[in-house]
Amino acid sequence: MVNTGVTVHYFYDPLCGWCFGAGPLIEHLAERDDIELILHPGGLFDSRALDKASRQHFLDSDQRIHALSGVIFGDAYQTKMRHAEHVVLDSTVPIRAILAAGQCGKSALAMLKRIQLAHYQQGETVHDEKVLTGLAAEMGIPAEIWHQALITADEGAVIARTANLMMQHQLRGYPSMTVEQDGQLKHIAVQSYFGKPAEWAAYWDSLSG
């Protein structure tokens, strides 16, 4: 990594539609060798059952997210949100899986992306450990090592730390982002760059140039 002194703190939830929309922007940061990217997962949902009105609210938001960012919300996901008898959202188990992937020497961001695609495109129940174990297998993580990592991952402590940092930096909602450079901390309005990859890249070039 080129030492430019730029550290990006990304605050997200794996079941936040706007964070799904931010995915291409975050992947750009991860691919750069002049930026240190630190992920801070937050627990937006804790076994929350969605009624029909809540589901429609999310679907309406998804349309706006797609229009701005271009990310695709799959037919299986939309059908599930419209017609399934029960829809429950739980961020805590997916966050545990993201932490476990990191403990297994794999990319936490790569696991996050797989979880988002499983949820938002394939309509999978991503707090089901069988689904997450399948994603881990796709990443080449041996089952025994994976299950041990799931046991030891402490998502509760990480979620609490994220909440404290967001309060400290007066951040509200997901996605949120701060940038550290030369002892200064500033907020970045991630959503203002949706659909603007060239402007996004140019901004980070200006910091590290």
UniProtKB/TrEMBL annotation:
Gene3D superfamilies: Glutaredoxin (3.40.30.10). One of its GO terms (molecular function) is oxidoreductase activity. Residues 7-184 form the DSBA-like thioredoxin domain. It comes from the Bacteria. InterPro entries: DSBA-like_thioredoxin_dom, Thioredoxin-like_sf. This is DsbA family protein. It comes from Photobacterium halotolerans.
